Amino acid sequence: MLTADEVHLVMEDIQRLVKAGRVVEAGWRATSAHILDDASDGEIQVMRLMYFNGAQHMFSIMMRALDRPDCDRRVQRIEQELEAFIKEANERADGIRQQNRKTTN
């Protein structure tokens, strides 16, 4: 869990990256700040690589979709898929938190 000072530093870093036009890197920094407490350097590098691969994949799909007449439908499907993933991830995180509370009490 990040301290208030750490959150402030991460937010400053993210704002600097966005201003420099590095929005994917900013997204990675925001994500990694919350999930990498005990990850090794090698694990962090693999996660960053996978994050950027996912971003590249989505960018490629979005660019191709813009040229198609069914663009809106394709974008909606992507949005729905990502919303379902976020819901599932939040449910898993809630389950892990509940399990951790049980083991620490």
Brief overview:
The chain is mainly alpha-helical.
Question: Topology, pairings included?
Answer:
Layout: H1 4-19, H2 23-35, H3 41-66, H4 71-104
Helix pairs in contact: 1-2, 2-3
Order of helices and strands: HHHH
Question: Percent range for helical residues?
Answer: over 70%
Q: Taking all residues together, what is the mean pLDDT?
A: 89
Structural class estimated from helices and strands: mainly alpha
Describe the main β-sheet briefly: none
Number of beta strands: 0
- Work out the strand percent: under 5%
- Counting structural domains, the number is 2
Characterize the overall form. globular
Put simply, the count of helices is 4
Radius of gyration: 17 Å
Q: pLDDT under 50 segments (min length 5)?
A: none
- The N- and C-terminal alpha carbons lie at a distance of 19 Å
Written account of the structure:
It contains four helices and no strands. With 105 residues, it is mainly α. It folds into two domains: 1-67, no CATH class; 70-105. α1 packs antiparallel against α2 and α2 (23-35) packs across α3 (41-66). It is globular and about 55 Å long.
Q: What are the defining features of this structure?
A:
85% helix, 105 residues
